[in-house]
Here is the input.
Amino acid sequence: MKAEEGRAGAPAAPLPKLLSALFYGACSFLIVLVNKAVLTAYRFPSPLFLGVGQMVTTILILYVSKLNKIIHFPDFDKNIPKKLFPLPLIYVGNHISGLSSTSKLSLPMFTVLRKFTIPLTLLLEVIILGKRYSLSVVLSVFAILLGAFIAAGSDLAFSLGGYTSVFLNDIFTAANGVYTKQKIDPKELGKYGVIFYNACFMVIPTVLISFFTGDFQQVTDFKQWTNILFIVQFLLSCILGFLLMYSTVLCSHYNSALTTTVVGAIKNVSIAYIGMLIGGDYIFSMLNFIGLNICMAGGLRYSFLTIQGQDSPKHSTDEENLISSAKS
Here is the structure.
């Protein structure tokens, strides 16, 4: 890990870039399916509490790993909150809105609407990190967005609450990716420190919100706690929550935040097709299907540009030194 972090300022080799992207895609794919089962199939009443479980699992895994010298991140000091801000707020917003939207929408519509994260990420990278992308990359991104508009406009099971949650999740996800890329400098907190302290700062407020809103009472009254299959899937969701956070940071470390987001979008198309076949809550429409395939075409085009190296962002000269420590 130290050798890896010592090369943080240098361009990442192709293999780590590819493997980190595949790892993130696999984790993101699996957690959507498991969360959907927990929140919908078992009707677990609290996406908030599921998020708490994922945060606690993350804290335990990283802390035990640090004690056993498997990984390293800085001990707590008074400067850490300043170094992290605003990531903890974005982190909890991303967690809650993501879990809420998963429970309120069909899998195909959830995955389509999540593609709005891509242009938001591109915009935030331009504004916050000073990056510039080629016209080909921008056009492929907006092809994905166009497909999402077409698919969403034909949704026959419209849910205002679900749409609101997923659009908030898009905003939080984009901001999380961009600010994470900015703050994973190994000379500061490093990727493990960012994940650990994010979870530490937000787990107690989230538990308090759950308690005072009556959410915690619904969890204690939940009837499936004696169901072994449910408990296994709940624990699996908690572990996947940690792996998703880690894989997101790892992919952003080796790639751009935009590439991480596009990997998620391409993965989501496969989930959408699975949802059509086995989800049981998809209402077919031709416009929806066409929009989904336009999204896929845009995602594949972006992937082709990435292989060619055209996704590599350009910075102004004054910003290069500032950004270099966060670049892969």
The beta strands are 131-132, 314-315. The first strand starts at residue 131 and ends at 132. The mean pLDDT is 77. The chain has 15 helices and two strands.
